[in-house]
Amino acid sequence: MAAAPEAGTAPLIGAPAARTDAIAFPRLAGWRRPFRRVLSLGLFFVAWHVATKWDLDLYVRFQNIPAPAEVLEEAVALFGGAAFYVHILASLERIWLGFAIATVLGVGLGLLIGWFRFAEDTLFPPIELLRPIPAVAWVPLSIMLWPTERSSIVFITTLGAFFPIVLNTIHGVEGIDRQLVRAATSLGAGRAAIFREVVIPGALPSIVTGLSVGMGVSWICLISAEMISGQFGVGYFTWVAYGIVKYSQIVVGMLVIGVLGMLSSALIRLVGARCMPWLPRHMKDGA
Amino acid sequence: MRLDATGRIEITDLGIAFGRNGRTVEALRRTPGEFVALLGPSGCGKTTLLNAVAGFVQPTAGQVIVDGERVARPGADRGMVFQQHSLFPWKAVLGNVEFGLKMRGVGKSERTSRARDYLNLVGLSGFERAYPGELSGGMQQRVGIARALVNRPHVLLMDEPFGALDAQTRLTMQELLLGVWREVRTTVLFVTHDIDEALFLADRVAVMTARPGQIRDLVTVKLGRPRAAEVIATPEFMALKARVLAQVREEGARTLAGSRR
Predict the structure, then answer these.
(1) B95 in contact with A at a CB cutoff of 8 Å?
(2) Which one of B53, B57, B82, B88 makes the best mutation probe of the A interface by having the most chain A beta carbons within 10 Å?
(3) Quick check: helix, strand or coil at residue A189?
(4) A61-102 pLDDT, tens per residue?
(5) Is B160 a domain residue?
(6) CB distance from A183 to chain B under 8 Å?
(7) Pairwise CB contact (< 8 Å): B84 & A204
(8) Distance (Å, rounded) from C-alpha A158 to C-alpha A214?
(9) Is residue B134 included in any domain, yes or no?
(10) Which string of DSSP letters, residue by residue, matches B38-92?
(11) What is the CATH classification number for the domain harbouring B200?
(12) Under CATH, which number does the domain A68-286 receive?
């Protein structure tokens, strides 16, 4: 309603300027904005290159930092061999397992806690108690609890993803419009049908938000756990590279972690959007 | 979709207490297949009365009886159309209209064909796959009406269903509702605070008092059917309106006096 009525009525002060802007803006967006973005990225690499080639020492020291070209060379070498893939697959397997367990537990418990008062009273207090403890703080205890290194890292990953998923699910269930529940009952829906037809789809947008946040947190937890206690994995690889003075491998490890994290978040968003065709596009992007 | 002799509502000495504000609604007996409007100032308990018939709230005194059975819980025999559309946002139009049939275990192809019939009745053929968020307010309420009617309810409860629409759309919707009601002869209990709307739609208008809400007058609307919008300009309509308006203004004045006290 802000812009449309101005078209037919007398021009307001400042209106012509606004209109010119509105016309000029899309043309600007045509090529200038992508150009500026690419330029920005280019400058970043130039700055990185210069800082490492000149061995800058501006309190932060660049003497030991590998240059972009060295990193690229290292990446080509690593992806040419088989060993690096073992680390990547180990990390992906742990993320997948941990995230899947956290999704089943988090969504399941969240739906129960959000909808049934009895479940809230009996299940929620321990969750509230443990929630403020960062998952990484569980590493020592986890090593004692679980028989294998793999299972203890999966546990940490699960823990990291679990809390955002369960809390967002509860939040989603509690936010369901009661009018919709009334409508369903007056159309003949029983308790099970309300849970299936109203509660679950009603909480879905919030659940997807929880999964998205949970995926980010589980990557943080995975990499931390691998650095502390791993024998495989990209986190372990990155940490060991530091120990054996293979500095360009550190940066390759970091970049791989970043790319994998980004791809898994994109996957969640894609699946989320597929499951919720009723949401307008801008709301899906937010989830 | 033809008339059957169900939809008899009996409401006796209904009392619904909210905190310390007890509201009572006096006996309202109605004949099946009638269109009754509940007219009253805001806060008089019209919606509460409707919610009691729907089974959403339990009366603290008295009881609501529909077709000889006491209302204890919501059920598909009493369809509801809400003030704010309450379609399931995650279901497309067809899914929303099919909902009641699905709850009764009607098979997929059967419920699709029946839902299509009712969508056709409210003039929404071709919108089966649209989501509620993509429809205008008037279209959303038409889906709401189809969704309630597909269950063949004995009573259709409508809680200011057109209150949020603009004047022009509201008039179109009122005419559409009368057209639909001519096809699906069910008892209608229609809550509104709009005198024109009540008189245009209903066989009888129950004028309610300010709180605690009671039925003060039951005005029989002897206007022929089918009714077109032009009926509003006839002398008969004007006379009825004058009578109802006087009562409504009196109640309004009493509310004002009450709030001053």
Answers:
(1) no
(2) B88
(3) coil
(4) 998 899 999 999 999 999 999 999 999 999 999 999 999 999
(5) no
(6) yes
(7) no
(8) 9
(9) no
(10) EE--TTSSHHHHHHHHHTSS--SEEEEEETTEE--S--TTEEEE-SS----TTS-
(11) 3.40.50
(12) 1.10.3720.10
In percent, the amount of chain B with pLDDT more than 70 equals 85
Quote the number of domains for chain B: 1
Residue in chain B nearest A202 by alpha carbon: B90
Give the distance from residue A212's alpha carbon to the nearest chain B alpha carbon, in angstroms.
20
Q: Is residue B237 within 8 Å of residue B199, measured between CB atoms? A: yes
The pLDDT of residue A22 is above 70: no
What span, in angstroms and rounded, lies between the C-alpha atoms of A194 and A200?
A: 9
Q: Tell me the two tokens of residue A168.
A: 């967002």
For A114-166, how does the pLDDT look when each residue is reduced to its tens digit (9 = 90+)? 999 999 999 999 999 999 999 989 999 999 999 999 999 999 999 999 999 99
Give me the total of CB pairs closer than 8 Å, taking one residue from chain A and one from chain B: 70
| Residues in Cβ contact with B105 at an 8 Å cutoff, skipping those fewer than 6 apart | none
Residues of chain B in contact with residue A182, where contact means CB-CB under 8 angstroms, are 54, 56, 74, 80, 82, 86
Q: Is residue B224 part of a domain?
A: yes
Q: What count of residues does chain A have?
A: 287
CATH 1.10.3720.10 residue ranges of chain A are 68-286
Task: Indicate whether B199 pLDDT > 80.
Answer: yes
Range of the domain at B222: 1-77+196-261
Residue B6 domain-assigned? yes
- Taking the Cβ of residue A1 and every Cβ of chain B, the question of whether any pair is shorter than 8 Å is answered with no
Contacts of A180 in chain B (CB under 8 A): 86, 88
Q: Look up residue A56 and give its DSSP letter.
A: -
Contacts of A5 (CB under 8 A, 6+ apart): none
Tell me whether A189 touches chain B (CB under 8 Å): yes
Question: A197 CB near a chain B CB, below 8 Å?
Answer: yes
Could you tell me which residues come within 8 angstroms of residue B133 by beta carbon, excluding any fewer than 6 positions away? A278, A279, A280, B89
